[in-house]
Amino acid sequence: MSNAKQGLKAAKAALDSQNFDEAASQARTVLEVDPKNYFAYVLSHYLARLLTNDRSNVFLGRALEKQGQIHPAIDAYKAATQIKPEEDLAWRGLNKAYEALGTSGIEGRTSSALGLAQIYAEKYVHVT
Predict the structure, then answer these.
(1) Is this model's pTM higher than 0.70 or not?
(2) 78, 40, 74: which is closest to 59 by C-alpha?
(3) Which residues contact 46 (CB under 8 A, 6 or more apart)?
(4) Could you give the C-alpha distances from 110 to 61, 80, 97, 105, 114, in angstroms and in order?
(5) Which end of the chain offers a freer environment for a tag, N or C, measured as fewer CB atoms within 10 Å?
């Protein structure tokens, strides 16, 4: 198993146990090995802003969202969608985060839903 994969597993375990400092440390370690790692970026961005207000991205967004920090979670999810726009995980998180904003998040939710629709259309709709 790669160092990045091991680090992500450790980060997820730390996040699940609400050990945010350890989760951030593991995510940063993954980013040292793989600077474009989508999952580590989401997690580290979220935790960095949560813990240090540093701008150092899917685990990070999720962790921020769980703590009620919706706007930082949205930032983390958006960053993740820029890294891998074809992956639906960050788009789903972004959509859910906008949903948490209620009516003030309608525009963002519409945009994230359109992003998801495009991904699903490309993956599952086959015109013959």
Answers:
(1) no
(2) 40
(3) 57, 59, 60, 61, 62, 63, 64, 72, 73, 76
(4) 19, 18, 12, 9, 6
(5) C
- Which pLDDT tens digit goes with each residue over 25-66? 788 788 788 877 777 766 765 565 555 433 336 777 777 777
Please report, for the domain that includes residue 94, its CATH number: 1.25.40.10
Q: How many domains does the chain have?
A: 1
